[in-house]
Amino acid sequence: MRLQLSVPSNKNIQKAIQITGSKSETNRSLLLQALFPNIKIENLSNSDDGEVMQEGLLVSNGEVDIHHAGTAMRFLTAYFASQAGKEVVLTGSSRMQERPIKVLVEALRALGADIEYVKNEGYPPLKIIGKKLEQSLVSLPANISSQYISALLLIAPSLKNGLELELVGKITSVPYIKMTLALLEQIGVQAHFEGNRIKVEPKSMVEDTTLVVESDWSSASYFYSIVAMCEVGTKIQLSSYKQNSLQGDSVLSKIYQDFGMETQFGENTIILSKISDNLPNKVNYDLSNAPDIAQTIAVTCLGLGMGCHLTGLHTLPIKETDRLAALQTELSKFDAKVDIDAESLTLQPTSNLNLDVAIDTYNDHRMAMAFGPLAMRTDLIVNDAGVVSKSYPDFWKDLKTLGFGVQEM
Ligand SMILES: O=C(O)C1=C[C@@H](OP(=O)(O)O)[C@@H](O)[C@H](O)C1
Ligand SMILES: C=C(OP(=O)(O)O)C(=O)O
């Protein structure tokens, strides 16, 4: 699907949008529910990633294809490895077969798991023969993806002696690890995270518990970007959100103050308001705790004619696409000057944006959604716009609700 996007006729938007549950919280909650069936879940994500996780958890034998879903790949690897009697080949899209998983496989093998690489050493697909894992202490690198750590923590309470992890190197994407621990706590599992060690106690049964998934803050980022590019006075209400979020991307409410915005927290809602046009020329952020909003912020800066220096982006090259390279290519189509290195991106302020640029999306939902808001500033085309379904299938419909022109070509 190729979409032509154009600016809303009324740039002073006043609308309300309901966003579905966080895909990160959803996929964790689903795994916990598979281990402890008396858990109930509310406000599940309607994303492709949530669906493949749900379907994957139902399989006992045969092939499980999780397509592009990193969390499903990593969480299900740990799940199947720990389930005696299950035997699967866990595979994914061609990009998933390029996303590394060795750190997790080696940690699980050290705990006693039976996992083999079907094609290339260190990458999916994996043949997993489920076993009762007997070991309870393992050490693993923490600087590549926090998802390996969350995967181990999620199965930890179901292991006979629980689990103790020693994290080696600088820990990346820390809020996602804390989210996992917070969900364990909500179901009554005891866990401690201090320095580079995490210990999770075993638990054979949990009380009846309902996990209420907060809506997705990474999805909210695109509305922050839209409001930032609107007239002063614009307000968009999003639900269902809370001030004490488990999601690190809720840092958006602070970051977007730099773009002349304010976030008001109500009961279950946030209202994003544009309150000032007085903006700095350049902003700097370390996004090692919130890597998924890097694309949104870079495009907001482009749209507002601001520069930015974004650091802590060392995980971006192994996500749905190499996001650093993809950002550089696509931002440059607007005549922007962009420099990247292994962990940072620098965008120079750009005043005149090229017209009718066609954005390539590289099978990456966030490339499509990050550039969508730029239609506030210039008409543009988004190629393969259907990629948004990975995390936010209703994205284009919601943009239409705000008055954007969204035309299939
Ligand atoms: O645990 C999670 O739910 C996630 C962790 C992050 O990955 P990394 O830890 O690989 O940075 C993030 O980018 C991803 O979208 C979701
Ligand atoms: C990196 C992402 O997802 P995953 O790693 O779960 O595929 C994302 O949603 O931005």
TrEMBL record:
Domain Enolpyruvate transferase, first and last residues per copy: 63-399
Keywords in alphabetical order: Amino-acid biosynthesis, Aromatic amino acid biosynthesis, Transferase
GO molecular function: 3-phosphoshikimate 1-carboxyvinyltransferase activity
Main enzyme class: transferase
EC number: 2.5.1.19
Entry superkingdom: Bacteria
Keyword Transmembrane helix set for record: no
GO BP of this protein: amino acid biosynthetic process; aromatic amino acid family biosynthetic process; chorismate biosynthetic process
KW Amino-acid biosynthesis (keyword) present: yes
Pathway the protein acts in: Metabolic intermediate biosynthesis; chorismate biosynthesis; chorismate from D-erythrose 4-phosphate and phosphoenolpyruvate: step 6/7
Catalytic activity, reaction form: 3-phosphoshikimate + phosphoenolpyruvate = 5-O-(1-carboxyvinyl)-3-phosphoshikimate + phosphate
Entry similarity comment: Belongs to the EPSP synthase family.
The protein's name: 3-phosphoshikimate 1-carboxyvinyltransferase
Organism listed in the record: Flagellimonas pelagia
